[in-house]
Design goal:
It is built from seven helices and no strands. Helices cover 69% and strands 0% of the residues. The protein has 179 residues and is mostly helical.
């Protein structure tokens, strides 16, 4: 059952569990139910879907997100206006009368990059597997350039979760290279 899951995704979920434990503020937060649900979903997905096709599709969309988040941050720094990346044609229900307009108003003043996601932490969680995949397979300049782009976009999120996960991934990479 677990043999169908790629090694890098097992590393990612292991690191995600560690981050959840380290950043928990109470005992009830120490059990990462969201990550457990995601891991069960990954087990189900890789029981039916070919890994290489899934990763190819994920990488394409993830790199679009990385490029857009870098553009978003640079545009904010130069012009002072954040492009939210919110897709107006998709409904957003926050329990308010005009949730989309409210969301754009609230997040539009923040300079933190989040690409198409509602907040930087969610973007960081989505992009982190891409970093794990790329950093553990980086063997030439082109791959390292991609790792640097991903790392830069994660730093621009200014997300606590993203920064902690970034540190853990780099520590894991260094340990893996040493051993």
């Amino acid at each position: 059952l677990f043999n169908n899951i790629p090694y890098s995704l097992n590393i990612y979920f292991g690191l995600l569990f560690i981050v959840a434990l380290l950043s928990s503020t109470s005992i009830s937060d120490a059990i990462p139910f969201g990550q457990i649900e995601q891991y069960i979903l990954v087990i189900a997905i890789f029981s039916f879907i070919r890994y290489d096709k899934f990763i190819t599709l994920y990488k394409k969309f993830a790199y679009v997100c990385v490029c857009f988040s870098l553009f978003q941050y640079v545009f904010y720094m130069l012009v002072g206006v954040k492009i939210t990346g919110m897709l107006e044609f998709l409904p957003l229900d926050l329990g308010l009368e005009n949730s989309s307009a409210y969301f754009q108003h609230v997040t539009g003043d923040l300079g933190r990059a989040s690409a198409f996601f509602s907040e930087p932490a969610k973007y960081a969680q989505y992009i982190m597997p891409l970093l794990v995949i790329e950093i553990f397979s980086a063997n030439n300049r082109k791959k390292w350039f991609k790792v640097i782009l991903i790392t830069t976009s994660l730093i621009f999120t200014e997300s606590g979760n993203g920064i902690i996960m970034l540190g853990i991934v780099y520590i894991a990479y260094i340990i893996n290279r040493i051993l």
